[in-house]
């Protein structure tokens, strides 16, 4: 007989089945559609036939950049069309007068968790100017908030690597200090040296056994060539399943036959694609990539920062946006959008005990919807958010530590 910390009754699963979910030691120890005999049961909660979904996975966010928890900062447009270099310049100027990273990151973490996020991957700026001054408070936040969310950190060269001398060494230092992945940024468009940029990133990853997540805005056939080279290097280095290309706009800008060819290479190499379906840009064809065997997932990316003023951390909202912009209308397509912020994102992040399954972590969201499709199109609130079986947020409000232990 297994001792149960909490027995959640009248839970509605995605297939409509009503079940009890037994949780012990932060794990799901039983899911049953009929009454079962257990050992000691610490507490019982009736979920009232509300829908229970796995905790959502934020696949791409920048915790060090946001202005959540700070004064409103009006957006500053680029002077002559979008430019990564100019945006970075504007960002540094705005952040110089912002509240401390620890304050803003904590506010954004709480906002995301209150919407149902259980796991996230945050890119954190590392360059010759800021050194590890962004990494250190985010690493501290990862530990401080670990009871309500798990956080992966990408050491991200926002100012480039070859064009920012000393950054390669700083990226490696960040990995030694606990970064989970090493990042990259437009090897051709920003650094002007695809081979040199990728040599640096893959070298760090191979030496330290960490993953890779590369921002790739470079478009057209140039971007496709970079994607194919990343796939080739991933396969050659045995890093399959640990490499992500974020944005990959080129996949939405070229002919379908080129995308199919590239998708096959990505699938064979084990390279995932992250897209947030940004407003004014073409983006990768989600279903074509998925059907080719590529893991395609999503995230909010920038939230109320120097890059754009939008976002509230709601991953159901993000799933709806991806589906809306992709022309998803059928039930299966709406589920595909939902998978991008749950199971697909968990696979890309390498989360081993994810999902509403016996043995999985008891991370889940409870809300008023009849099924996943309604959850995506209606994004219902309020939501109850559980981490390791403990209530961490209710109705958009974080629950205090003492209440978590009840």
UniProtKB/TrEMBL annotation:
Pfam families: Amidohydro_3 (PF07969). Keywords: Hydrolase, Metal-binding. Residues 44-392 form the Amidohydrolase domain. The keyword Metal-binding applies. One of its GO terms (molecular function) is hydrolase activity, acting on carbon-nitrogen (but not peptide) bonds, in cyclic amidines. The keyword Hydrolase applies. PANTHER family: BLL3847 PROTEIN, CYTOSINE DEAMINASE. This is Amidohydrolase family protein. It comes from Bradyrhizobium uaiense.
